[in-house]
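One-letter codes give the sequence; each number marks local geometry. A record appears below:


***
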Amino acid sequence: MSKTKSVSSSNMSSFREHTTDFFSKAKLMYQKQAERILGEEGELKKLQQQVVFKLEQVSHHPKVQEALEPIMVFKRMIQAHKRGDFKVSSKSLMLIVLGLVYFVSPLDIIPDIMPVIGYADDLSVLIAVYNAIKQEVEEFLAWEKNQTLSK
């Protein structure tokens, strides 16, 4: 029993290390592009369209389904921020855009065309972004729920 716990703990630790590693590499690869997109309204809209297009193409893939909820939350956060309904911090916006740019990019650490593992890096980056801004995501979800209840 304790052997199982240590293996599972070891696997989780290894997963966290890979997630952090993918996230660090994604930041190096796409931070400047994310900054540029944030600075141009048209580019941000274009990114959102690319996310929708890629989701339509790959949403059937079991690995991508794990990331659907965070992606949809990120999309709603950007939309609420753009409308002026909910303030998302500059740091969080940057991380969200960076994660979405990585998701839609065909050039990433593990090519998406590789069976089974092709989306592992995309998921790792999105999960790392989600965890990095978790408190703000939770505040947004609470705000969003309150908006729904008050209508």
About this structure: Residues 1-19 have pLDDT under 50 and may be disordered. The first helix runs from residue 2 to 39. The helical segments are 2-39, 41-58, 62-65, 68-83, 90-104, 120-132, 134-149. DSSP finds seven helices and no strands in the chain.
